[in-house]
Inverse folding.
């Protein structure tokens, strides 16, 4: 017997089995296949010593994710010079204590942070196909969609207070700095552009004149934020949010970025040009997923150890 439209039942069964196996792999293995990516960025002024920066992003912690917690704790063994957390730490309103336990060893190092939408608001079920639809219609987050009604609010204030108590610098639409063995580092940060909380006009003006090096930090790499940082002369911008596309096609790459950044720069190191300037841009693929779409395919979860070195002509 054949199915309607002449498709053999055996073919349908094989297709269903392959699809089920793919989902099982994406959710059961790859989403938990945590790894460290190492990147060298030739961006520092001549003569400045190398800096080792650990970027963590898009943890989306859910209570009970013990393997992820242990892996995050183990990253302290890298002994970075400082940590940059580019947001979306939560995907569970009850996960703040476990998140702080996971990041506890890293909070022993100097650090800076910005928040993403999932730090402020709890997750909601969403059809993954909507990301493709929003891309075709040029809509992303509150930049193109109506405000969310009845959103669940996360207890993010306790997470912020713990970060602050550990000495991490809050870069929510503000500037901050770190001093490391005589090196003055300046940071300029934005709140999440995905939900229109960015206020670049509050921090405009370019890098700190007295700093040895300045970095821009933002959760979602929307072009307006990248343009502003770059046109103001920041040599390096760090971001997250995209999950590297999360579900990618092997040998092709990501289909979406969940913002207006092009898919060629969905993760890793690239450059951005605006206002006659060029910046290095690093977008972390992050190490988590929304709790309602706990899959990754051809895009394993990650943290990144960036080694900043002196660059020619800078």
């Amino acid at each position: 017997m054949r199915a309607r439209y002449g498709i053999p039942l055996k073919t349908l069964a094989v297709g269903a089995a392959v699809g089920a196996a793919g989902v099982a792999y994406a959710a059961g293995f790859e989403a938990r296949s945590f790894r460290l990516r190492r990147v060298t960025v030739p961006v520092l002024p001549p003569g400045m010593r190398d800096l080792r920066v650990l970027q963590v992003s898009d943890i989306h912690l859910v209570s009970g994710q013990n393997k992820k917690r242990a892996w995050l704790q183990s990253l302290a063994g890298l002994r970075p010079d400082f940590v940059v957390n580019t947001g979306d730490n939560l995907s569970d309103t009850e996960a703040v204590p476990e998140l702080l336990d996971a990041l506890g060893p890293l909070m022993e190092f100097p650090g800076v942070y910005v928040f993403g939408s999932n730090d402020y608001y709890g997750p909601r079920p969403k059809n993954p196909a909507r990301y493709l639809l929003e891309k075709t219609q040029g809509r992303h987050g509150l930049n193109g969609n109506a405000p969310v009604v009845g959103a669940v609010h996360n207890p993010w204030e306790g997470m912020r207070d713990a970060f602050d108590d550990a000495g991490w610098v809050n870069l929510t639409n503000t500037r901050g700095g770190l001093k490391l063995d005589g090196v003055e580092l300046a940071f300029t940060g934005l709140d999440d552009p995905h939900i229109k909380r960015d206020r670049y006009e509050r921090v405009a003006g370019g890098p700190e004149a007295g700093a040895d090096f300045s970095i821009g930090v933002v959760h979602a790499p929307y072009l307006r934020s990248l343009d502003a940082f770059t046109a103001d002369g920041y040599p390096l911008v760090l971001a997250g949010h995209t999950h590297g596309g999360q579900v990618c096609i092997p040998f092709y790459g990501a289909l979406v970025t969940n913002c207006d950044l092009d898919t060629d720069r969905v993760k890793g190191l690239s450059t951005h040009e605006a206002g006659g300037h060029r910046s290095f841009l690093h977008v972390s693929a992050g190490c988590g997923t929304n709790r309602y779409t706990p899959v990754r395919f051809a895009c394993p979860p990650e943290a990144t150890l960036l080694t900043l070195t002196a660059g020619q002509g800078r």
User: Anything to note?
Assistant: Confidence is low (pLDDT under 50) at residues 1-5, 10-22. The CA atoms of residues 168 and 278 lie 28 Å apart.
